[in-house]
Amino acid sequence: MQAAAEQTLHRPPGAPGGLEALFREHSGAVYRAAYRITGDPMDAEDVLQTVFTRILRREGELELAGGVSSYLHRAAVNAALDLLRRRKRRPSVPLEDAEPELVDEAAVHPEQQRESRELRGRLRAALAQLSPKSAEIFALRYFEGVGNLEIARQMGASQTSIAVILHRARHRLQKELAPRQGGLS
Fold first, then answer.
1. How far apart are CA 29 and CA 69, in angstroms?
2. DSSP label at residue 67
3. Which of 3, 13, 30, 101 could connect to 19 by a Cys-Cys bridge, CB 3.0–4.6 Å?
4. How is the chain split into domains, by residue range?
5. Is the pLDDT of residue 19 over 90?
């Protein structure tokens, strides 16, 4: 039995424990990670398909340093950030509109909803301007709630370097968002 940090996905995909089982077990988490970054259900579906299509196209075994969940999460974040960078700007659907049970609609004023949607859209656009590594680390920390220690483990970096990258990313995003909004806290 291999440790979680050195798992291998054995091919072929049709075999027990192959790609189909991997998809059944992890597709929801991949979709949610992509949705938090893209803000669009169709884009999240595209990312989901991209992640699993890339795995399908790989020859032989896939080394999953950090474990299957970690690998798929990072793949979803990276694919979503790639999508943000290359797509033409289209309106996004806020997470709470796609999953209304997450927010009590009566408790949120329409003006607050509009401002929140606008800020999320601007944040996504500014995030797409960061380097891929900075954007991935920022998304893992602030969209997915992954701690600095876990990010450092997943990225094969020191906790200090992750903290520095996050500090610089926050500073750059604050500068990007400052003209219209008071910044990002």
1. 9
2. -
3. 13
4. 6-177
5. no
Q: How far lies 182's CA from each of 49, 113, 119, 123, 178, in Å? A: 37, 17, 11, 13, 5
Nearest-CA neighbor of 139 among 148, 121, 149, 127? 127
Structure tokens at 80: 């979503």
Q: With beta carbons less than 8 A apart as the criterion, state whether 167 and 175 touch.
A: no
Separation between Cα atoms, residue 111 and residue 97, nearest integer Å: 15
* 6-177 CATH pick, 3.90.226.10, 1.10.10.10, 3.40.710.10, 1.20.140.160: 1.20.140.160
Two structure tokens written together for 9? 């996905």
Q: What is the pLDDT of residues 77-135, one digit of tens each?
A: 888 888 887 765 445 545 444 444 444 445 557 777 777 778 777 888 888 888 888 88
Adjacent-strand bridge partners of 65: 6
Q: Cβ contacts of residue 49 below 8 Å, gap of 6+?
A: none
Q: Which residues contact 160 (CB under 8 A, 6 or more apart)?
A: none
